[in-house]
Write a structure and sequence with these properties.
There is one protein chain. The chain has 282 residues and is α/β, with parallel strands linked by helices. The protein has one domain (30-281): Alpha/Beta hydrolase fold, catalytic domain (Rossmann fold, 3-Layer(aba) Sandwich), CATH 3.40.50.1820. The protein contains eight helices and nine strands. A nine-stranded mixed sheet has the order 1-2-4-3-5-6-7-8-9, sandwiched between helices. The N and C termini lie far apart (55 Å).
Length: 282
């Protein structure tokens, strides 16, 4: 009986080894480069997560919020990384300069910093097995403002410490989790821009990020015939994405499926999901 168990274990081990050999997973490894510098300021650093098996993988930027005054790249937690990497994506989480008292930093300086990070990764995508032409900008709250600027601004006034100064950032999709969207950002949406996925809480939302901003952004997408999806969670407040989307324990099934369809669409050109609608989570 013991001999039979040993033979069974050996047989299973050989099967898994052979399967990994033929699927190319034998030496696949998830790696992270921490504090990769994209400028001269101490806050101009980012963490890059990738799989050594990746070839021409889409790249997802996860941009933290914090009213432009607080926050860090640690915002990108394991649940978030797991969701994106399960779709075969490289994940990049940048820091950026903050609007601290006594400094002249503005919210648009914050956006410019992250644009520099995107330009850096765009130029060095092949090092991580990435596709420089498939970048998705995502963010929460203030990070949603920054990610929208990254996705829909057409021109950047690059500073002296920018290591790369491309004419355009190759954004194929945008996701905002309770993004701050003033009219100045919404007006930047133009023909053939990247599709968008938007999420807001209900009455408990932050007063600076009412769900009306999401509806206005979706109207701008519709007017330009750009695919979009909005999720409205009446019972929740600010940045509901962590609970409704990213956490395997609490995520909403319909929202999760719709977001996966969005990623398939923008990252791989797969499928034709319904757009222009609103998912209302109870």
């Amino acid at each position: 009986m013991e001999m039979l168990k040993v033979k069974t274990v050996i047989a299973v081990g050989l099967f898994l080894f052979t399967a990994n050999l033929f699927t190319g997973n034998l030496h696949a490894e998830v790696k992270v480069d921490r504090n990769v510098s994209y400028g001269t300021h101490e806050r101009k650093v980012m963490d890059i997560y990738w799989n050594t098996q990746y070839k021409n993988a889409p790249i997802v930027f996860t941009i933290h919020g914090g009213a432009f005054k607080n926050g860090s790249k640690a915002y990108c937690n394991k649940d978030m990384r797991d969701l994106y990497m399960a779709k075969g994506c490289i994940v990049v989480s940048p820091n950026y300069r903050l609007k601290k008292e006594g400094t002249s930093i503005t919210k648009d300086d914050c956006a410019l910093d992250v644009a520099m990070a995107v330009a850096y990764v765009q130029a060095n995508a092949k090092k991580y097995g990435g596709d420089p032409n498939k970048i998705v900008a995502t963010g929460a709250s203030a990070g949603g403002y920054i990610s929208a600027q990254i996705a829909y601004s057409k021109k950047w006034d690059w500073p002296a410490d920018a290591k790369y100064k491309p004419e355009q950032l190759n954004i194929v999709g945008w996701f905002g989790n309770s993004p701050y969207l003033p009219r100045s950002v919404i007006r930047k949406v133009s023909d053939k821009d990247a599709p968008g996925f938007i999420m807001y809480g209900g009455e408990k939302e932050h007063p600076a990020t009412p769900a009306r901003q999401g509806y206005d952004m979706q109207a701008a997408f519709t007017a330009k015939q750009i695919w979009s999806k909005m999720v409205y969670i009446d019972a929740m407040g600010h940045v509901p994405g962590r609970r409704v989307l990213f956490s395997p324990r609490t995520r909403d099934k319909e929202t999760y499926e719709a977001f996966n369809q969005f990623l398939d669409l923008v990252c791989y050109g797969k499928g034709k999901p319904k757009g222009g609608d609103v998912i209302k989570v109870k």
